[in-house]
Every structure is written in structure tokens, then in C-alpha cells.
């Protein structure tokens, strides 16, 4: 299964700042195992543009579609056999400690 | 009837092959209905489990054929024909039921969904009965179960028993679901609705995971509690304390089974024989466990307590030991309170919750006098979590009465009675108050 892993900030990170693993090692390891198909950090939300078409008119909005205190700062596309494997990959990501990760399965068509 | 034992086996096997939870349940259910209709007429077949599996499998084949599903599933279903579950069946079938339990209890599902799904799919309890126990309508419960099954498929929850460290991490969650299922297994009137199913599931898990001390301990704990089901209430339906219960009405066969399960848990929990000559701690010996105060033992306090072969007893083993002390006492006056107090000391180190602190105070009160109990009660109340908690007031009242202050004790019993929800508990508390001082 493919999972889109949304990397988000969180207002209540882990209390131990030393606990989070290293991101470079995570990327190298997951690329090596084939579990990470692609992924990237995202530019600051101030660079986001929201696009809608209503009644034939193009509407552009400055900023993300929802104003929240937790924002998406990156993503990874994972290829895993099931949720347990995806959770094992996610729990080793530093942002599981410093923020939060959301696993969204892709619909298999 | 044989069908009840065969049900989880059939559902689990059909889910493995078809991946369709609803189809698996429907077909297993239809096989049971067919048995109820035909067995009285034609006689019970020689291999009832195999007969049921064949009927369910044929039904699933029909449905899938009509739905023109992939050939692979149909081929695998055909193989099921030749795998009648017999006592010496390959581990395959056993694993199926365990897989089902672990999938139903997956932490990616809400706790409510886990309990409902386990009852429905593993134990085969009708949705209407589950709905009643959770005080919701049947359609709400149906939706909840359907949503949980859809989530399993969509989120990619695996149909597998975890191994190694993942098993140690997941097992306590599975045991918590079974324990919750047992405590919720009594309906609003306190009648056991599916507590029997919880006990059966605990036995099944114990049989399927023969190396896990906490599984045997949970089985023992549920059996000890279940053994008192006929003695829990008086003729008016009021709850009775352990001291008030007629012990001849306890289910002594269940107690014997529980003691056997507890002995099994102790054996599994004991570290391999090392330098010390006494590695097994007898259930009734509080003195034998000074070793758990060693620095290495307390440093492990945060490790998953359900893990097998640790050098300290897990929470279910401690609770089962306490339950055994009660179950084997000839009468309330001859209960081994020092042993119970000791197991509560350990339990509160492992799970420092206010309610365990309260029970610990009760045990110390009986073992070492009311002053000791009151001191620990003050400790349990320190963080305010027991404020306005009627059982805490009742315990304070009981200890105060025994320390020779009946007037204050009666006031406390009446204060507790004002706070309790059920009329039966209220009557019991007022009875105690009236026994100490005449009613106002």
C-alpha cells in the first residue's frame, strides 16, 4: 500500500529534545529499504497559494486553505505492506517527536 | 453447542481467504442456523466443526461466484474443504483465530470499536446485545462496527499477529480489551450478559499463547471474579461485599480452574533458575519478594509490563494473586490480608492510580490496623483525584469505625450515600450508618 505521510508541527512536542532521531539517517535508511518513494520539506506557509474556480472565475488566496496552529511542513510518500509497517517507519522520524505525522493511505484504483 | 467453539475458527479462516469481514460473519452465522435446523432432525455429525466449516465455505463460494470475484480467492476457498478442523490440525487454523483477535484489538481503532468488534467477530455476540451493554441503539452499534471494519480495510490494518518486541508492545492492549469486555459484560441490572464470552476468549488466548504469563494471569483473574457471580447480590438485588457473600454459592469449579491458570502464570513468569534457590514466588508468601525492590527491578518500571519472562510480575498476575487470596479464604475473617497488602504495594508501584491506592489502603487497614489504612488513604487522596469519590468516603468511614469513632464514621457513611448513583449501594451505606448511630 502507498501512504502519504504528512509531516506536521504540533503545539505539544515531546519533552525530551534529545530523544528525536536524526533526519538524514532516517531518509538514507528509508530510501535504502525502498519504503520512501519520495518526499520533501515544504516552503513556509507564507509562500502557499490556494486555488479555486467558482462560476468560471479563478480565485487565488494568499496562504494555506486552513488557518491552524499546526501546519504541514513536509511530506513523504511511503510504500509499505500495511499500516503496521508504515507506523514503524513513521515512529522513527524525528517529527514524530517534535511534531506529528499523519498517515493517509492512497486509494488504490 | 459445538457451534460456539467453531465460530471464531470459521470467521477467522474465511476472513483470511476472502478478506471480507461481513461475508465471513454472515456465512459463519448461516452455518450455525443450518445446524440448528438440521442437527435435531438428522443427528449431530461426527465432526461438527468440520460440518460447519464446509457449510460456511460453500455459502461463501456461492456468494463470491455470483459476485464474480477473482479466481484466486475461489481456489483458496476450495482448499478449505480439505482442512477440516480436527484436534491435531496444523497451526494454521489456530493462528487464524489469534490473528483475528489482534486485528480486532489493533490500536489504530478506537477502544470502543475494538471491544465491539471483538465481541461481534471473535465471540459472535449479536449486535443487539452489544448495543444494550453499551447503552446505545442497535443501529448505532451496527454503524460503529461497520465503520471499524471499513477502517481496517482502508487504513491497511494487517491481519497478523505481531512478533518480537511488537508483540510485547501490543499484548497489553489486547488484554485490556478482554478485561474491559468482561467488566462491561454485565447488563444494567448487573446480570452477566456476555461475561461468559469474555472468559471463553481469555481461555482461548491462554491456549493460543502458551508462553505469556500475563495471558494466563488474566484468565485466572476473570475466572476468580466470575466465580462469585451467583453470590454478588442479596435477595433484594443489593450488591454484597466479599465479607457478606455466602461463600458456598461461589463457583468452586471456576475457582479451581482459576488456581490452575494462576499456577501456569507463575511458572511462565518465573525467571529461569539462577543462583537463587527460590525463583518461584508462592501466591501466599509476601516475604519472598524483597528481590523486586532491587534497583534493576525498579529501573524497568516503564518497560511493557505484558512482556513475557520479565523478572517482575505484571499487573494481571498481581491482581490474580490478590483474587486468589480472597477465593481461597475459608471466611472473610481468615483472609490473608498481609499478602494482599503486599501485592497492592507492588501493583501501585506498577500502576500508581488513585483507585489502586484506595484498595491498597483497605488492604493495609485489615492487615496492619485502621491507622495504617487511614495513612495510605490520605496518600491516595493527595492529588485530589478521589475528591467526591463515594468509595473513598466509604473506605474512610469503615476505617474510622474500626478506629473507635462511630459518630464520625456514621457521618461519613451518610455522606457517601448522598453521592452514590445506584439506589442499592445507597441502601447498603445507610444500613452501615444506622448500625453505628440511630438514623437522624
From TrEMBL, chain A:
Domain YCII-related stretches: 1-108
Database matches in Pfam families: YCII
Gene3D superfamilies: Dimeric alpha+beta barrel
Membrane spanning stretches: none
Family label: Belongs to the YciI family.
Protein name (Swiss-Prot/TrEMBL): YCII-related domain-containing protein
Classification lineage: Bacteria, Bacillati, Actinomycetota, Actinomycetes, Micromonosporales
TrEMBL record, chain B:
InterPro entries, A to Z: DUF6596 (IPR046531), RNA_pol_sigma-70_dom (IPR014284), RNA_pol_sigma70_r2 (IPR007627), RNA_pol_sigma70_r4_t2 (IPR013249), RNA_pol_sigma_r2 (IPR013325), RNA_pol_sigma_r3/r4-like (IPR013324), WH-like_DNA-bd_sf (IPR036388)
Annotated region described as Disordered, given as residue ranges: 266-313
Domain RNA polymerase sigma factor 70 region 4 type intervals: 102-152
Pfam family, one: Sigma70_r4_2
Keywords: Sigma factor, Transcription, Transcription regulation
Record-linked NCBIfam families: sigma70-ECF
Name of the featured protein: Sigma-70 family RNA polymerase sigma factor
Organism in which the protein naturally occurs: Micromonospora antibiotica
Origin organism lineage: Bacteria, Bacillati, Actinomycetota, Actinomycetes, Micromonosporales
Amino acid at each position: 500500500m502507498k501512504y502519504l505521510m504528512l509531516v506536521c508541527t504540533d503545539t505539544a512536542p515531546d519533552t525530551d529534545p534529545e530523544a528525536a532521531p536524526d533526519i538524514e539517517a532516517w531518509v538514507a535508511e528509508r530510501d535504502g529499504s525502498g519504503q520512501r518513494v519520495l518526499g520533501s520539506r515544504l516552503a513556509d506557509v507564507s509562500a502557499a497559494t490556494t486555488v479555486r474556480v467558482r462560476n468560471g472565475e479563478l480565485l487565488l488566496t494568499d496562504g494555506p486553505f486552513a488557518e491552524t496552529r499546526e501546519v504541514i511542513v513536509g511530506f513523504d510518500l511511503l510504500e509499505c505492506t500495511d499500516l503496521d509497517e508504515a507506523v514503524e517507519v513513521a515512529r522513527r522520524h524525528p517529527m514524530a517527536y517534535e511534531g506529528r505525522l499523519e498517515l493517509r493511505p492512497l486509494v488504490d484504483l | 453447542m459445538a457451534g460456539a467453539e467453531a465460530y471464531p475458527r470459521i470467521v477467522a479462516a474465511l476472513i483470511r481467504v476472502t478478506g471480507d469481514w461481513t461475508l465471513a460473519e454472515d456465512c459463519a452465522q448461516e452455518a450455525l442456523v443450518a445446524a440448528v435446523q438440521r442437527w435435531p432432525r438428522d443427528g449431530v455429525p461426527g465432526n461438527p466443526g468440520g460440518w460447519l466449516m464446509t457449510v460456511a465455505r460453500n455459502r461463501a463460494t456461492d456468494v463470491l461466484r455470483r459476485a464474480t470475484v477473482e479466481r484466486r480467492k475461489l481456489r483458496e476457498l476450495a482448499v478449505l474443504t480439505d482442512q477440516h478442523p480436527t484436534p491435531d490440525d496444523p497451526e494454521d487454523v489456530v493462528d487464524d483465530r489469534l490473528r483475528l483477535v489482534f486485528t480486532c484489538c489493533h490500536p489504530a481503532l478506537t477502544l470502543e470499536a475494538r471491544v465491539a468488534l471483538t465481541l461481534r467477530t471473535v465471540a459472535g455476540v449479536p449486535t443487539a446485545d452489544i448495543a444494550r451493554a453499551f447503552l446505545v441503539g442497535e443501529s448505532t452499534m451496527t454503524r460503529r462496527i461497520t465503520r471499524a471494519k471499513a477502517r481496517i480495510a482502508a487504513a491497511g490494518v494487517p491481519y497478523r499477529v505481531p512478533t518480537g518486541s511488537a508483540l510485547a508492545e501490543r499484548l497489553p492492549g489486547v488484554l485490556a480489551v478482554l478485561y474491559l469486555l468482561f467488566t462491561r459484560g454485565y447488563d444494567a441490572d448487573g446480570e452477566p450478559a456476555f461475561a461468559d464470552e469474555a472468559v471463553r476468549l481469555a481461555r482461548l488466548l491462554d491456549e493460543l499463547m502458551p508462553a505469556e504469563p500475563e495471558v494466563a494471569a488474566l484468565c485466572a483473574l476473570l475466572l476468580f471474579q466470575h466465580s462469585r457471580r451467583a453470590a454478588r447480590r442479596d435477595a433484594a438485588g443489593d450488591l454484597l461485599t466479599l465479607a457478606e457473600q455466602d461463600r458456598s454459592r461461589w463457583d468452586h469449579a471456576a475457582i479451581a480452574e482459576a488456581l490452575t491458570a494462576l499456577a501456569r502464570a507463575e511458572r511462565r513468569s518465573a525467571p529461569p533458575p539462577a543462583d537463587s534457590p527460590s525463583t518461584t514466588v508462592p501466591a501466599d508468601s509476601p516475604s519472598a519478594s524483597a528481590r523486586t525492590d532491587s534497583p534493576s527491578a525498579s529501573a524497568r518500571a516503564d518497560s511493557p509490563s505484558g512482556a513475557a519472562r520479565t523478572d517482575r510480575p505484571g499487573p494481571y498476575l498481581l491482581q490474580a494473586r490478590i483474587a486468589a487470596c480472597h477465593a481461597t479464604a475459608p471466611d472473610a475473617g481468615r483472609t490473608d490480608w498481609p499478602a494482599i497488602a503486599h501485592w497492592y504495594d507492588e501493583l501501585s508501584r506498577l500502576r500508581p492510580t488513585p483507585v489502586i491506592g484506595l484498595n491498597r489502603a483497605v488492604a493495609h487497614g485489615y492487615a496492619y490496623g485502621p491507622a495504617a489504612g487511614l495513612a495510605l488513604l490520605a496518600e491516595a487522596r493527595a492529588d485530589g483525584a478521589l475528591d467526591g469519590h463515594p468509595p473513598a468516603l466509604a473506605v474512610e468511614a469503615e476505617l474510622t469505625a474500626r478506629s473507635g469513632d462511630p459518630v464520625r464514621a456514621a457521618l461519613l457513611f451518610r455522606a457517601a450515600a448522598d453521592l452514590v448513583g445506584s439506589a442499592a449501594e445507597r441502601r447498603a451505606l445507610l444500613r452501615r450508618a444506622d448500625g453505628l448511630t440511630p438514623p437522624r
